């Protein structure tokens, strides 16, 4: 995954890991249920996991507090945009500014966005989008999709957009930087994604900032069930009928009452 951040065009290797991680998690839970005993000293001593991951430093006081009580699953974030989460706060800001001022893409002379330190990575800085993977990470491309009003969804990843001359021209007017306060503020909340957007139109500078991206489980930033359902229906509309999507959505929102997951899988099979 780390190497992927420096490789252009962006390969698909990022998506090889989640399946194995999920499989490992499920197997671990089943083994624990069966009485399997794991290594409770995994993080301890000179031969702890940190050493084998290539780290030259280990601060257990920063990593281990709450390891038996805190569950990251309960702070699940949902992505409203089909791109790297790093740019989402800036996209929220840009959409709000655009709605207020009704700019056309040609009106905009320059866009400067400030995001997390991850924004410095080559695949976020990339402006030569060659495939759908590049499109998911390029900050300039994401801002272009917002500026041109492309429907939010799978449409962002289609060749007609990332090969468009007008889109590529707009991308050259977008600069992605690291937020100057990024190293201080996020320490207060691990889900914080600082964002700042500076838009120049007609020689005038418009500036706005925000601390969290929409879809974060923090007051005022959560996505509603209706928003999540609309995203699901929109992205599934090319494979499923509206009736299929409605039934699947109803099942998903009542997942805890499902007798067996096979019922859901049957509904998620294209006709």
């Amino acid at each position: 995954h780390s190497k992927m951040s420096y490789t252009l065009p962006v390969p698909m290797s990022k998506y090889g890991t989640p399946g194995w991680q999920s499989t490992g998690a499920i197997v671990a839970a089943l083994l624990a249920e069966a009485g399997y005993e794991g290594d409770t000293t995994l993080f301890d001593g000179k031969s702890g996991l940190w050493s084998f991951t290539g780290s030259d430093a280990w601060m257990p006081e920063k990593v281990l507090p709450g390891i038996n009580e805190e569950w990251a699953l309960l702070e699940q974030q949902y992505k409203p945009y089909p791109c790297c989460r790093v740019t989402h706060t800036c996209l929220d800001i840009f959409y709000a500014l655009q709605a207020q001022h009704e700019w056309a893409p040609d009106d905009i002379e320059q866009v400067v966005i400030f995001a997390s330190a991850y924004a410095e990575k080559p695949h976020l800085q990339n402006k030569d989008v060659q495939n759908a993977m590049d499109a998911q990470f390029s900050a300039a491309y994401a801002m272009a999709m917002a500026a041109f009003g492309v429907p939010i969804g799978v449409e962002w990843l289609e060749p007609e957009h990332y090969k468009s001359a007008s889109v590529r021209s707009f991308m050259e007017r977008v600069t992605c930087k690291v937020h100057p306060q990024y190293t201080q503020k996020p320490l207060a909340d691990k889900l914080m994604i600082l964002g700042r957007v500076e838009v120049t139109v007609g020689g005038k500078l418009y500036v706005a900032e925000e601390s969290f991206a929409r879809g974060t489980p923090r007051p005022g930033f959560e996505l509603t069930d209706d928003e999540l359902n609309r995203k699901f229906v929109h992205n599934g509309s090319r494979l499923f009928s509206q009736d299929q999507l409605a039934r699947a959505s109803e099942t998903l929102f009542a997942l805890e009452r499902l007798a067996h997951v096979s019922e859901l899988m049957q509904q998620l099979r294209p006709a």
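The mean pLDDT is 92. The chain has twelve helices and four strands.
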